[in-house]
Write a structure and sequence with these properties.
A hairpin with a 2-residue loop joins strand 61 and strand 62. The longest helix has 19 residues. Helix content is about 5%, strand content about 35%. It contains 8 helices and 69 strands. By secondary structure, the protein is mainly β. The chain is elongated and about 140 Å long. Strands 57-54-53-68-67-63-64 form a 7-stranded mixed β-sheet, with no helix packed on it. Strands 1, 32, 33, 34, 35 and 36 form a 6-stranded antiparallel β-sheet that branches. The N terminus is likely disordered.
Length: about 1000
């Protein structure tokens, strides 16, 4: 197998300061409920201080959501089943059966009923449907705050003995009204692809639902479609906003991907999607009243060109014929015709005698259009009924819009890049026997990727059969900026009406090999282990900097269309990027390919870092579906199947294979289950060895024969995935939660960066499962699960005040976390309000001082945060309250006097306690100390020290006072002079 490489050199890992690392969203220990609506500046102030701590060289840490506990309670016939999240920031190590770190105290009706150490679920045999549950993490022996009360689920029959039961949270939906197309065809709506994100910063997921009209189309299908709506719901069914994409966005899996993610790190997710004139967003208040209602903002250039939100760019059959007239009239001036690449005349392109002069008149152009529609196109294929071509959008502006996730308000709209250029002529849509205007040009993909290892970028792509383009965008809260734009260039054709464009390289020297390699989905994964995610674009992979990491080819075998010829692995429908074989380093990619006799392989398992073939098999047919998963716990690694079942190492396991619609991690034993059912078939979850585990009675899957759920993702409870299905009438969205008790402990899969972005892109075209960056299966080693836990909190610090300032001391935390501590952040906070003071010290320091000149008079408490590469710890408990007066902390009236006693020079030192509280006083003169303890307020300490000589020089005595009040130590120092004296 051959792979072609092109990548930029790198100088190595990037140095990241502790402050930068602290800006990740891995929640601090005990952070069960994140602060709502924190601005980027606030977030930095809360977690990012301490740049002076020093730099550490490390991989960047992906910024992920601060989630709540996700606690659910499901009353069953044998008690109440409870399930909740372990956060990644709470996992500190591994055991044989799971991760270690936070344990959990479980409370029923305010009373503690259990300590759970080996999992994040519990069956309470004494619980009832009326019981109220909370859980609290326990780290380092300290119990954190309790969670919000559990969401109560509706339990369903567990079915046969030994099979997992399930419970359901049901979200009532607000279904759009039915509609009628310009061709008088009625259509209805169903709730389709769904995504989740925290749009309001409360730590809980909201659900973003795409409403699919019943007449939605594949890009190759003719006809009008209804408009598409995107709704955002709270778990209780509250409709937050609705986005009407408008008549100029066609409905269908290939058109309407929507990425919902916290792109700017403010704790609240945005929604990005392709829009057009007529796209409108509406926000709703808690009472259901409209709070904002507006079309997207049209760019000034479009307004100047006469574009309005009332425009309708959908083509009727007559409109399409008129469109072709304009295309044909411009034939002789096209660059491809002028430079001789394409035939000089349309007659030559159609293979008929030249009978018209160029440039064509309107009448001549219409005559050739009639020939094309009525003679030439049908001669190529009986399916080319272009007189019926309608409902497509081949012209007009295209935009990319960022919406506020909670309100739906538009934040920014820019032109979509790249644009369509034309109706597909350059893309090869007229070149094949099947003429499909608007097909290859309107194949869209979208995703999210941590291209710099820390910040999520939105990825929007166009094309994969021929010209292939991928744009990466960053959102800073105010503006979109393009990180890179990959463009293969068009695939050259000698005749755009009769010359296959597939399998050819694009015109770009850098990205030309990307053509024909894309799939109906994409993935983001760190395939080369550099801490930054790449974009796996089917049979090719784009590096994090936008360069082409590799594009995979192989040799066509005997029996193929051209034996011995090097060919691209090419396009396919299903792709899975995961750690499939734990015996091999890194990730693998399993793909199926539809090129039939022109594809070297019907399916392939490849090394994700290099694209090199591990195993595969020529099929000679369109191999449309394939899947991976741990369906056989007795076989190491994940199994793969397309035309037959194989082990991760390539061993054949037989011809029988499970379904290929969608996988789900439903069982408590870490194996993989399969979702079956399509169309009007009742969906089920099947286990390869145990049989049926769930029947979705009264529910349906989506996307036709693909039979995919609205969503499969870890959105509630423990690490297992939930199955989200629509009711058959789309009146509700049902979230199924497994109630099978598991003894395995793992942090929420949503805190694995690969899995999280895979969930975000799951709604893209042919929905593919989401996979973690680590090996997840029944034979997994938990020691291989990546951890990113910050230090445990330090104990409450000590605080003291002396003549120089305020001093804070502490002990190192009980555990350093999963990486070394890089420093400490110490905050001095005024009691009763005011601006806090802050300082940072190094990892070896256990003391920090605030100069008295910088501390205004008042009362203060201190807190300490330990900072590590994985982020900051939770703040310590506050110290005792220290009082700063602006003067000596312990007031004394002190003096010293030289005097003669029996002919010997002495120094008398006197200190009157004027502090109002008892104090220990030390009097020092002539090298002699005297300590007087518990000198009462209003009393004095006295010391007379002899020199042993008849004379002394002038000097200074010192007086120190110590007072300990309510846990705070106060320390004052005084220097008092005495005069020279001779007693001769």
């Amino acid at each position: 197998m051959m792979n072609r490489f092109k990548r930029a050199s790198r100088a190595g890992l990037v140095g990241v300061t502790a402050a930068a690392l602290a800006l990740t969203a891995a929640p601090a220990a005990f952070a069960a409920t994140p602060a709502a609506a924190a601005t980027p500046a606030t977030a930095a102030a809360e977690t990012g201080a301490g740049a002076e701590v020093g730099a550490s060289t490390a991989l960047a840490t992906p910024r992920l959501e601060a989630l709540d506990r996700g606690l659910v309670a499901a009353p069953t016939t044998d008690g109440v089943f409870l399930s909740w999240r372990l956060l990644k920031s709470e996992a500190y190590g591994a055991s044989e059966t799971g991760l270690t770190g936070a344990d959990f105290a479980v409370y029923r009706d305010g009373t503690k009923i259990a300590d759970v150490t080996d999992s994040t679920n519990l069956r309470d045999p004494d619980g009832t449907a009326a019981s109220a549950y909370t859980v609290a993490p326990v780290l380092g022996g300290h119990e954190g705050p309790q969670s919000e009360k559990a969401t109560t689920l509706t339990s369903r029959d567990a079915g046969e003995a030994g099979k997992a039961g399930d419970a359901v949270a049901s979200i009532p939906l607000t279904k759009p009204a039915d509609g009628v197309t310009p061709a008088d065809e009625a259509y209805t709506y169903s709730a389709s692809d769904t995504s989740v994100a925290d749009v309001d910063g409360d730590g809980a997921y909201e659900f973003i639902v795409k409403w699919e009209p019943s007449n939605s189309k594949d890009v190759s299908q003719v006809g009008y479609t209804g408009t598409v709506f995107l709704d955002t719901y709270e778990l209780d069914g509250t409709l937050l906003n609705r986005i009407d994409l408008g008549v100029n966005i066609r409905a269908g899996a290939h058109y309407t991907q929507f990425m919902v993610y916290d792109f700017d790190g403010d704790g609240r997710a945005e929604l990005m999607t392709k829009t057009a004139p007529g796209t409108k967003s509406t926000g709703f208040g808690a009472d259901g009243e409209v709070t904002n209602d507006a079309f997207v903002t049209l760019p000034e250039a479009d307004i100047a060109a006469g574009v309005s939100n009332d425009d309708d760019y959908r083509l009727s059959a007559a409109d399409y014929a008129d469109h072709l007239v304009e295309v044909f009239r411009g034939w002789s001036t096209r660059p491809e015709v002028v430079d001789g690449t394409w035939p000089a005349t349309l007659e030559e392109a159609f293979g008929i005698p030249v009978t018209h002069q160029y440039p064509l008149s309107e009448a001549d152009a219409r005559e050739l259009v009639d020939h094309f529609l009525d003679v030439y196109a049908p001669s190529r294929s009986a399916r080319n009924a272009l007189r019926n071509f309608e409902g497509f959008i081949l012209d007009g502006p295209e935009y990319l819009t960022v919406f506020d996730g909670a309100t739906g308000a538009e934040l920014q709209t820019i032109p979509y890049e790249p644009g369509r250029t034309d109706d597909g002529l350059l893309w090869g849509d007229y070149a094949m026997a099947r003429i499909e205007p608007g097909n290859r040009v309107d194949r869209f993909l979208a995703g999210v990727a941590y291209l710099d290892g820390e910040h999520p970028s939105a990825v929007f792509a166009r094309g994969y059969y021929t010209r292939t383009t991928v744009a990466a965008w960053d959102w800073d809260g105010e503006n979109l900026s393009q990180r890179f734009l990959v463009d293969s260039g068009f695939t050259p054709m000698t005749n755009p009406f009769n010359d296959s464009p597939h399998g050819r390289e694009g015109t770009s020297e850098e990205w030309g090999r990307l053509t024909t390699q894309g799939f109906h989905s994409l993935s983001a994964a760190d395939v080369d282990g550099d801490g930054r995610q790449e974009i796996v674009y089917g049979s090719a992979t784009i590096d994090d900097d936008g360069s082409l990491l590799y594009s995979s080819y192989d040799t066509l075998p005997e029996g193929s269309a051209a034996p011995g010829t090097e060919a691209k692995l090419g396009h396919g429908d299903a792709m899975h990027v995961a750690d499939i074989d734990p015996a091999r380093p890194g990730l693998e990619i399993f793909t199926v390919h539809e090129g039939a006799t022109y594809a070297p392989l019907g399916y392939a398992l490849r090394d994700a870092a290099t694209g090199e073939l591990i195993y595969g098999e020529y099929s000679g047919k369109d191999t449309g579906r394939g899947m991976v998963g741990d369906i056989d716990p007795n076989t190491p690694g994940l199994e793969t199947w397309a035309t037959r079942l194989r082990s991760a190492s390539g061993e054949s396991l037989g011809a029988a294979i499970p379904g290929t619609n969608q996988s789900i991690r439903w069982s408590g034993d870490l194996t993989t289950q399969i979702l079956n059912g399509a169309g009007d078939v009742t969906p089920t979850i099947e286990d390869w060895t145990r049989g049926r585990l769930l029947t979705g009675t009264g529910e349906r899957t989506n996307n036709g024969t693909k039979g995919t759920a609205n969503l499969v993702a870890d959105v509630l409870g423990d690490w297992r995935e939930e199955l989200v299905l629509r009711s058959a009438d789309s009146s509700a969205l049902n979230i199924h939660v497994s109630t099978e008790v598991t003894t395995h402990k793992l942090y929420t899969l949503m805190h694995d960066p690969q899995y999280r972005v895979e969930v975000a892109r799951q709604n893209t075209t042919y929905n593919q499962p989401s996979y973690t960056s680590f090996y997840l299966a029944s034979d997994m080693s938990f020691a291989d699960v990546p951890l990113a836990a910050p230090p445990l909190p330090v104990a409450a610090p000590g605080i003291g005040v002396d003549s120089a300032g305020v001093n804070v001391t502490w002990k190192a935390p009980a555990s350093p976390g999963t990486s070394a501590i890089t420093g400490y952040r110490v905050t001095l906070t005024p009691v009763g309000g005011g601006d806090p003071l802050e300082t940072t010290v190094g990892a070896d320091a256990l003391r920090a001082s605030f100069a008295l000149a910088t501390v205004p008079a008042g009362s203060y408490t201190a807190k300490v945060v330990a900072v590590g590469d994985a982020g900051p710890s939770a703040a310590s408990a506050p110290s005792a309250t220290a009082v700063v007066t602006g003067s000596q902390p312990v007031r004394l009236a002190a003096n010293a006097k030289s005097q003669c006693v029996n002919g010997t020079a002495h120094v008398a030192v006197y200190a009157y306690n004027d502090s109002g509280r008892p104090a220990d006083v030390r009097l020092s003169a002539l090298g002699t100390d005297k300590k007087v303890t518990a000198v009462a307020a209003g009393k004095a300490a006295y010391s007379l020290v002899g020199s042993g000589a008849a004379a002394i020089a002038a000097g200074t005595a010192s007086v120190t006072a110590y007072s300990f009040v309510d846990g705070v130590g106060y320390h004052s120092s005084y220097s008092v002079p005495y005069a020279a004296l001779s007693c001769k």
